[in-house]
Each structure stands twice: as C-alpha cells, then as structure tokens.
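Thread: sanity check for a docking pose with nicotinamide-adenine-dinucleotide

Original post by kr_44:
Hi all, I'm comparing my docking run against an independent structure prediction. Below are the sequence and the ligand SMILES. Could someone generate the full complex and paste the structure tokens? I mainly care about where the ligand ends up relative to the chain.
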Amino acid sequence: MIVLVTGSSGLIGSEAVVYYGSKRAVVHGIDNNQRREFFGPPGDTSWNLKRLQAEVPSFIHHDLDIRDRPGLLRFFGETQFDLIIHCAAQPSHDLAASIPFDDFDVNAVGTLNLLETTRRCCPEAVFIFMSTNKVYGDRPNQIPLVELEKRYDYADPAYKNGIAEDFSIDQSLHSLFGASKTAADVMAQEYGRYFDMKVGVFRGGCLTGPNHSAVQLHGFLSYLVKVAQSSEPYTIFGYKGKQVRDQIHSADVIAAFDAFYNNPRCGEVYNLGGGRSNSASILECIDLIEQITGSRVKSTYSDEPRRGDHICYISDLGKLKSHFPGWSITRSIPSMIEEMLAVAVV
Ligand SMILES: NC(=O)c1ccc[n+]([C@@H]2O[C@H](COP(=O)([O-])OP(=O)(O)OC[C@H]3O[C@@H](n4cnc5c(N)ncnc54)[C@H](O)[C@@H]3O)[C@@H](O)[C@H]2O)c1
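Reply from moderator J.T.:
Ran it for you. Here is the predicted complex with nicotinamide-adenine-dinucleotide included:
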C-alpha cells in the first residue's frame, strides 16, 4: 500500500504517517513547514518532521508546496498512490483575514490542485479531505441556547446529539478561512460526485493531540495546556468562557479515515469531532486541567468574542457511526489532557 499525506508534519498528517507506517505502508509526506510562515517560530513543525523520520522507516518526506501545480504533477507522475490524506492547510479562522490570498491559495486552490492531479494520475485512489465545522459559518449560533453555570448548551432537543451534515452552510458569517475551506469542501464533494472518485470529506470539530505545534491562533486544547504549564495567562475571548467545542484525538481522526479507506463512497461528507461526550467549554477545560495538575491556570478575559466564533458546537457523529459501526471515540478529554501534560514535561 502506498499512501500520500499532505501536511505530514502537522497534527493530523503526522498521526496518519505513524498509523500507516505501523501498517507497513510506504508513506510519502508533503510539507513545506508553511505553519512556521503562518504563525512564526512557535508554529515550526520541523521537530515533528524529525520525529517521523526517526520513528517511521517507510516514511519519505517531500518539501513541496501544494500551490506548486507543475511540481505536484511531476511528483504524482512518479508514484501510484492508493490513499491520499489531504491535511495541508492554512488552519486558522482568525489569521485568514490578514492573509486572504495565501489563505485561499493554500486552502481552496491547493485542494483543487491535489484533486485534479489525483484525477489525472491515480483516479482510483481514495482521497480524504480534512474540512472543518467552520463551513457552517456562525449559523450554529442561531440555535437557541441555555446558559448553564460553566457552559452553554443547545436548548432545542433537535440538537441533543449535535449538528448533522445537512445543517445549512449558506448565508452566514464564515471568516475568510471558513469561506476558503467551504470552497475546497464543495470542490472535493464535486470530484466525488461528478467524476465518481472515492472522495471523503471530514468536517472537523476541535482536533487535538500531543503533536500539535500549538499557537494562540490555532490548536485550542494543546495551546491551553501549554500556557497552563507556563507562567503566562491564557486569554479568553468573549462568551464568558462558556463557549463549547467538541474535542477529538488525532488517533480517533485517523481511525475514521481508515474506516472510510476500507469502505469508501464518492463525495460523502461526515462531521468528525468529539461529539457530545467530548464536548466542553473553555471554563470546563480549565477546571479539568486544574483538577489534573493541582495548579491554578492563570487567565485573563477580553469581552470581545472572536469574530464568527461558535458559541456552542457539537458534532453529530450519527452518520459516521452508521456508515462505520466499528468506529467510536476512544479518548476522553481528561485522558487527552493527561497525555499532553506528560509529553510536555519530557
Ligand atoms: N486542528 C483543528 O482543531 C482543526 C479543526 C478542524 C479542521 N482542521 C483541519 O485539519 C487539517 C489539519 O489540521 P492540523 O491541525 O493538523 O494543522 P497543522 O497546521 O498542524 O498541519 C498542517 C500542515 O500543513 C503544512 N502546510 C501548510 N500549507 C502548506 C502548503 N502550502 N504546502 C505544503 N504544506 C503545507 C503546514 O506546515 C503544517 O505542518 C487542516 O485542513 C485543518 O483546516 C483542523
């Protein structure tokens, strides 16, 4: 089996490299450490590349930019891939407004480059695109909410299990990031439906794990744990810190991808987050870290919410579980925090 992972030095890409490497696949990775360009030195992913090169014998790294169309065509001409996992991205909702061309060129055009190159060079490959819940824009904020002591939650019982894939993606505020990812998401669906390619689109909730080069603008839980261990305060932006995200470990993300690879469909869309059982507000995550470490987490509060931020987002995992009954969430939020604390201490 030959696998291609884009964004292979990032959180999700590196998890895919390790997983398929352990299955004795040849794993090619594309990453140009663009995360460092986006976020500065704390976003540098070269430490993770070195880790993969040391730990995964069948891993081959390529310092390629997914915006480089001729470079991709040359590269795809050399190898027939069975599986392509596309995770390279400008991943920050907030950063996109200051770099609109880079954001759209990487997220939307880069994805088109990969889809079209796949169609020309290995149309039978399974293609997985890592999308985002930001395709729903801020429309989830229109769902009536209840305010509890430490969190918001849905007041409408129709959303008890969270937001499903038929939720509207239209006519709401997305952020430029949400718009560029929506363009890529719809294009990936189209390659599945129009060209009958085996394309799966996974709309991520909050993805986390120990191998994130977390920064303030991206990688919420990992960054919170990092800040909690330092003497710096964590800044909460708006909604009293009661805004809810659902957390999923990168290993559970890759397990879902592998389930799709083994039973692919053309142009199918799945919401992929921690679901209700792994949903928590910022205040609740801070409480958990304090309980686990026994130390207080310093925080400051800014009354200005991040533009377009979700007040309460929980992924409905019903469709994913119905298509892939063997898949489930295996890591709880406390276990993820413990793992990140242990890695950070080493
Ligand atoms: N982390 C989350 O909470 C989250 C949530 C929803 C969706 N997603 C999506 O999941 C995917 C993976 O996210 P992640 O958290 O692993 O991000 P990440 O930033 O850790 O990894 C992305 C990698 O892509 C590389 N990259 C960026 N632009 C590139 C380019 N032009 N050419 C080659 N490589 C490039 C970066 O250097 C980085 O190593 C992204 O598509 C992101 O939008 C992430």
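The longest strand covers residues 126-132. Hope that helps with the comparison, let us know if your pose agrees.
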